[in-house]
Amino acid sequence: MEGPKPEEISHPPMDQLQGFEYCIDSNPSWGEAIALGFQHYILALGTAVMIPSILVPLMGGSDGDKVRVVQTLLFVGGINTLLQTLFGTRLPTVIGGSHAFIVPIMSIIHDSSLQQITDPHLENENMISYSNGIWPSRFFSPLGMVPVIALVGFGLFDRAFPVVGSCVEIGVPMLILFIAFSQYLKNFQTRQLPILERFALLITVTVIWAYAHLLTASGAYKHRPNKTQLHCRTDRANLISSAPWIKIPYPLQWGAPTFDAGHAFGMMAAVLVSLIESTGAYKAASRLASATPPPVHVLSRGIGWQGIGILMDGLFGTGTGSTVSVENVGLLGSTRVGSRRVIQISAGFMIFFSILGKFGALFASIPFPIFAAIYCVLFGLVASVGLSFLQFTNMNSMRNLFITGVALFLGLSVPEYFREYTVAALHGPSHTSAGWFNDFINTIFFSSPTVALLVAVFLDNTLEYKDSARDRGMPWWVRFRTFKGDSRNEEFYTLPFNLNRFFPPS
């Protein structure tokens, strides 16, 4: 029996994703843009609440301190988002708190020299970091970036469905409803607006949050274990009662930051990890905004502004550093709206509600299993964008199959070893007498995208690399490396206010 002809099963590679009604530089109506911006703000609350909830109690902080850190994280995140969308990569990316800083911060918290502090207020020690925006992009290829972008999405798998399972009666209905609205019912329209697809997150969060409140008010969790009540109840966060009505975060609000050379190395590792993860997220955001891949000049510009953002994190005392919010990148694909203006509006909401404490705390009190259910979809979507870069490579090549498989597997397996070892031994696998070295190594290898980058880029640039440029996808990739390599770059990435006169693209 004759098989299918090649032209019947081939799908030609495409620079930009299709089916987006609004791409990076096109905008929905103001009403729709404001609603979409508020939706991105709601999604950004998940990380903004989760990181302080982990760190502040370990620092000896109260619920009031936790609220202030959440407010500060949102305030600085809003400013950084505006700076990034205006002067950085100009991609529609929300800038939020980074999980990469948790490892060195935990090391600082458990430093015996700091255990003598008895001040009941939250202690703040931030390494003020700045990146100069230089990034070795010439070693990257589409093949090398596939595991990195994919694991930016897959890297937080342990904070998705396991958290959904901590309150299945809320998390599972949220997961099912979000998939149903955003995918199966996406063609339902009101006044020619696909309302269920476009606002699936807002609608489902509202419905499940109300359902969770009903369960709480009816006494469904009255005799359940404390851990279940903490995850399921809507009145256990203590954010609303602890939040001030109006509070403007300001620099050095926790006092003058201290500096320790040993801890600085751990923070430097966290900065490096956050930049690697952000690089993958920028690449994914460019495809989900229906734009061309950001040229080296634009990527370096964005990383430089991210370094300034981390500097602001240290000055304001957010408790962590900055990175691109991966879940918000995924939401671009779920809504099929990649508009830069929508993200800038969401930044306005972040700043506004971080100042009006009570109102911001109301939305921040949404049970976390609701966010975790959304993560299952949006992080997976970002991971699939990473895998889509394989279309520019030859996946009939054993070399490419080897590199992709090994980088993906080690990117998942090595950090899992570091996590399990840390839980079992109460310290990371690297536990020499040099604390700075331990922090650096443990931070680097806790990150799935970082491990994947190290493995993929090393193998891709050492294993038969001279004869495999076409198989690696370099002919497609090269023309996007320079700003003038593609005429569309000027439309997507030119600075506003005619600033390109002073910062000409290279």
TrEMBL record:
Localisation: Membrane
UniProt topology in membrane: Multi-pass membrane protein
Highest taxon, organism lineage: Eukaryota
GO MF entry, a single one: transmembrane transporter activity
Main location: membrane
UniProt keywords, alphabetically: Membrane, Transmembrane, Transmembrane helix
Any one Gene Ontology cellular component term annotated for this protein: membrane
Sequence intervals crossing the membrane: 38-58, 139-157, 163-181, 193-212, 342-364, 370-389, 401-418, 440-459
Family, similarity comment: Belongs to the nucleobase:cation symporter-2 (NCS2) (TC 2.A.40) family.
Protein name as catalogued: Nucleobase-ascorbate transporter 2
